[in-house]
C-alpha cells in the first residue's frame, strides 16, 4: 500500500469543484530590497500562473530570486510592485492578521531546515498550526494521526525531533503541512539538508501528493528533481527565462 493511499479526502476538503482554475496569479511582480542605501532588485517583472492540481518546480542558480518568489507566494513577504491573487483573492492590501489567517488555512509550508520545534513532540509539532486555527481537539487528533500515517511517521508520535533522522524530520514537516488540508503546498529546497536516498523518498512523497490532487510549488537547485514536476519555471537574475511543461 502506498504511503499516500486515501490522501485525497485530506487534501481536497476545501475544494468544492474539480474544474481547473488558477490558484496563483502574478502580474509584473517586482521585489527590491534596500539595505544601507544599497538597492538590490530580487525580482523583475514576474508573470506567473499556477493552476489547481499542478506541480511546479521553480529552478535556477543561487541568488536568482527563487526563495524570494516563494516567500511572496506564501504571503511571508510582499512585492514592491505588481499584482498578486491567491485563490482568486487580491492580497496586496490585506492586513497582517488576515495574511496570517490565509497562510494558516490556505498554504502548507515545507522548509529545507524542517522548522520543527525541538521541545515539542512529533504530534505537537504537527498539531500546532491547527491549534492556532482554533480547531477542536478531537478533530485535531484525527487530522494529526491521518497525516502522520500517510507519511509513515505515526509510530514516532511521541518522539522529539532530536530523536529522529533528517529524513524522518522532513516527513514530519510534510505531515504538518498536510494536516491543515491546504489548497497549495510550498516546498523550499525540501531535500536540501538530506542525503540522496532520503531526498528521493521526499520527492516520491511529493509526487504521490500531487497525484492525489495537491497543488505544489517547489523551489530547488537540484535539476534531478525537476523531473517530478509537471512544469519547470527557470529563473535567472530575478526574471522568468523559461516555463516548460514536462512530459508525464
Identify the overall geometry: globular
- For the biggest β-sheet, the strand order reads 6-7-8-3-9-10
Q: Which parts are unreliable, with pLDDT below 50 for 5 consecutive residues or more? A: 1-19
The pLDDT mean sits at: 87
Q: How big is the Rg?
A: 18 Å
Tell me about this structure.
The structure is a single chain. The protein is an alpha/beta fold and 248 residues long. The strands form two sheets. Strands 6-7-8-3-9-10 form a six-stranded mixed beta sheet, sandwiched between helices. A four-stranded antiparallel beta sheet has the order 2-1-4-5, covered by helices on one side. A hairpin with a 2-residue loop joins strand 9 and strand 10. The two termini are 22 Å apart. The N terminus is likely disordered.
List the helices and strands and how they pair.
Layout: H1 7-11, E1 22-35, E2 38-51, E3 55-59, H2 66-73, E4 81-86, E5 89-90, H3 96-106, E6 107-111, H4 122-133, H5 137-150, H6 166-179, E7 184-188, H7 196-211, E8 215-220, E9 231-236, E10 239-245
Helix pairs in contact: 4-5, 4-6, 5-6, 6-7
In a nutshell, what does this entry contain?
With 248 residues, this protein is an alpha/beta fold.
